[in-house]
Amino acid sequence: MDEFLKWYFSDRPVLAQFLGADGYDHTLGDFTASAWAAREREELRWLKRLSAAEPASPDDQIDRDLVLSQLRGSIAMASWPDWRRDPAPYLSAIFNSMYTPFQRRLKPEPELVSAAVSRLAEVPGVLAACRANLDPDLAAPLLVQRGLGQARTGRHFLTKTVPGMVEDPELRAKLATAAEPAAEAFDTLVTFLEEFQCGGTWRMGEKLYSTLLRERELLGYGAAELHEKGKAAWAELDARMRQVAVRVDGSEDWRAAMEVLMDDHPPTLADMRAEYEAETRRARDFVKERDLVTFADGEECHVLPSAEYARPILSVAHYLAPPPLSSSRTGVFFVPYTPDDFTPEQVRQRLRTNSRAQMPSIAVHEAYPGHHWHLSYMAGNCRTVRKVFRTPYFTEGWALYVEKLLHEQGYFDTPATELAHLDCRIFRAARIVVDTALHCEDMSIEEAETFMATKASLSPGTAQGEVSRYCAWPTQAPAYLTGALEIDRIRASFRGSLKEFHDRIAGSGGLPLGLAARVCEGTAAG
Q1: Which of 288, 313, 350, 414 lies 20 to 30 A from 215 at CA?
Q2: What CA–CA distance (Å, rounded) separates 293 from 504?
Q3: CB 141: neighbour CB atoms within 10 A?
Q4: Distance CA 293, CA 373 (A)
Q5: What residues does 510 pair with on adjacent strands?
Q6: How far apart are CA 39 and CA 11, in angstroms?
Q7: Rounded to an integer, what distance in angstroms lies between the CA atom of residue 201 and that of residue 371?
């Protein structure tokens, strides 16, 4: 396993640095077509080698099966090569590698700048590979347009935003100078993407979608069954929300009730951030008072505006975990700011989908005891491979599971916050229905946007951003409710206290749900 991880990190230096591994922060890696092909060959070799290995203990077997699930998923995706269809693999590597080190500040500033300068020198090559590798027959216009929106932020991000995070004037100037050739490469990419003509599809198809559910997520069922689970969950939640809506405004029309509640929102983006920070503190105090989990020593969660480069493609709150291979336990809850070119009405709609009734659920999900608690706590796991590989079907499932947990514990203590909590959940049920229908059936983008805007309390603008994300990231959107329901199922058969269950299943990592069940039911230590 150590040998496998050595290869894995050397092949993915940006990910290795993101996870906190030392020695990988001066390069972006090789993004040429030959490198992608070599990676696919190596994955097949490692799949064969690890499949033949004999684990020495139950924990070793969990580790081995975790890696095998990830390899099988990656090998299956070779038939759907994102590096030929989408600018995102290239852009995300650049943006994340430049922003995250300065956000975390785990090393002295001169070392951070030195690493950034080295990586900036490689940006023109990475973007040249993007231009060379995108296949007009495979790339989808929707994905290219998403990439174009991100690419347009590249010059300002590299020459202004990142240098602005450097305190020393001389180092700041050095970084800004080094950024100019990289910024010019972004200008070239923008022109290329504006003129790029392509005719591929973003629809993954049922066969690959189901393969990923079964072999990567270890769920035991495919897309059709998942679609039906989503519809059933939506209907059940709809009935519950009708009952709660009566206590909000006297009517069973929960959608109308949510529209009224959404008008009570922070007046500005800055106020939204401040109110989320206060709600995050309240959630932490509640979880600690109820003794629901064990907190990691030194954990801390900052609440900050979303990064400039993420605003064109992410319309909801999100989280940056502490690097699990480092000693840091500090994470960041990013509040969903809008792009600078949004109109006042678009900003208002973003604020409405972060209303005061919804904030408690969102803070619980992103921070305590959701993503931040989970990922800061699991970073203490002694099994290195558990820190490297995790699936959204557990991590997002966990964050939605704890929303329900805190509802059970009385955290959402008004009809308004209870209805908003259920709305957050029915939103995830709608995601299952839409994601599977988009990729495995023939639902149109317009139909999906209408579904999300009428079957959950999303503004039209936020629904548009959400559906664009589903098209670009198949199988991810169903992870939330699917994982939460599976964790509920595992909890029902666990012998031990609630806190013991939480510490055990979440402390074991972010495992595919089939492996998480084995950790809780068998002899693996987690």
Answers
A1: 313
A2: 10
A3: 14
A4: 9
A5: 390
A6: 8
A7: 32
Tokens of 103: 């956000």
Distance CA 319, CA 328 (A): 15
Which residues lie across from 320 on neighbouring strands? 332
- Residues 6 or more apart whose CB falls under 8 angstroms from that of 437 comprise 227, 443, 448
pLDDT at position 208, please? 98
pLDDT on residue 522: 64
> What's phi and psi for 390, nearest 5 deg?
-145, 155
Cα(88)–Cα(386) distance, integer angstroms: 26
d(CA 169, CA 175): 10
The one-letter amino acid at 55: P
- Name the residue type at position 361: S
Count of alpha carbons within 13 Å of 72, Cβ hemisphere only?
20
Model pLDDT, residue 524: 53
Q: Up-side HSE of residue 250: CA atoms within 13 Å toward CB?
A: 0
Chain centroid offset of residue 82 CA: 17
Report CA torsion sign: 211, 213, 218, 219.
negative
Encode pLDDT of 133-184 as tens digits.
999 999 999 999 999 999 999 999 999 999 999 999 999 999 999 999 999 9
| pLDDT reported for residue 526 | 55
Tell me: pLDDT of 523 over 60.
Answer: no
Under DSSP, the state recorded for 87 is S
> Which DSSP letter does residue 306 get?
P
